[in-house]
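ok new one. same drill as before - structure tokens go in, u give me an amino acid for every spot. 249 of them this time. try not to just spam alanines like last time pls lmao
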């Protein structure tokens, strides 16, 4: 069985003071959760968050990483820098990175390869726009994004990565795909992984999250779907009560 995995993406939110309050509230609420629980925090909060969650069942994540070990890449951060602070997971290729900061399928792949080589676990995001969904082109787009993201990644590494399906039209809008739409679309991604690697790899190794406005009200129904292994949570992760209800759905 694939272990459920719930990751909070704080995005550009929370000061260090906010982080201390939020995690102090969250830690007791998610204790004993069966799902793997991750908080992906801004760079300035990584050290504080890591210290606070030490010894708990919450794992530490970052929101991006560069593919180079070091160099003239102003504003970027390296895998070694993240590892030094105890980071385990890294979000790669979020739709906001693609939309606002020039992320491409190729750079997603480069970042993901570096993560795996260094011992970090990438949460690789793929997803389609509203126009692509409505035109019916989303299947080909998701298959292409998945294939390009996984170029050069060996079958033996699949257990150390996560795929997050983000219907871009549902992020931050409060609109979600129907449970069946989310399930069927994730099945497209899983089937592509099966064609690239093997059926067992897709069915028993790779975990695929849903990243479209999962919250306490819809989490139980979404997580009841057979293809959905968890959620990449935005807004709901900024509230300890809401996020804990998702984690302990």
């Amino acid at each position: 069985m694939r272990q459920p995995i719930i990751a909070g993406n704080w995005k550009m939110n929370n000061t260090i003071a906010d982080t201390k309050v939020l995690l102090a509230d969250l830690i007791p609420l998610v204790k004993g959760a069966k799902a793997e629980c991750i908080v992906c925090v801004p760079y300035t909060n990584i050290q504080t968050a890591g210290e606070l969650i030490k010894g708990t069942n919450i794992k530490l994540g970052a929101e991006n990483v560069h593919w180079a070990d070091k160099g003239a890449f102003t504003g970027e951060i390296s895998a070694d820098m993240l590892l030094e602070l105890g980071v385990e997971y890294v979000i790669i290729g979020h739709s906001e990175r693609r939309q606002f900061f020039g992320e491409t399928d190729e750079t997603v792949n480069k970042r993901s390869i570096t993560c795996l080589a260094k011992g970090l676990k990438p949460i690789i995001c793929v997803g389609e726009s509203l126009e692509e969904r409505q035109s019916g082109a989303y299947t080909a787009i998701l298959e292409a994004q998945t294939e390009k993201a996984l170029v050069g990644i060996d079958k033996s590494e699949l257990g150390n990565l996560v795929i997050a399906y983000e219907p871009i039209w549902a992020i931050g809008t409060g609109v979600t795909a129907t449970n069946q739409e989310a399930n069927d679309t994730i099945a497209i991604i899983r089937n592509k992984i099966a064609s690239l690697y093997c059926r067992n790899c897709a069915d028993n190794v790779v975990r695929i999250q849903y990243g479209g406005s999962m919250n306490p009200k819809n989490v139980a129904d979404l997580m009841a779907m057979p293809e959905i292994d968890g959620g990449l949570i935005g807004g709901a992760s900024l509230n300890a009560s809401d996020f804990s209800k998702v984690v302990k759905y």
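The first strand starts at residue 5 and ends at 9. and btw The radius of gyration is 17 Å.
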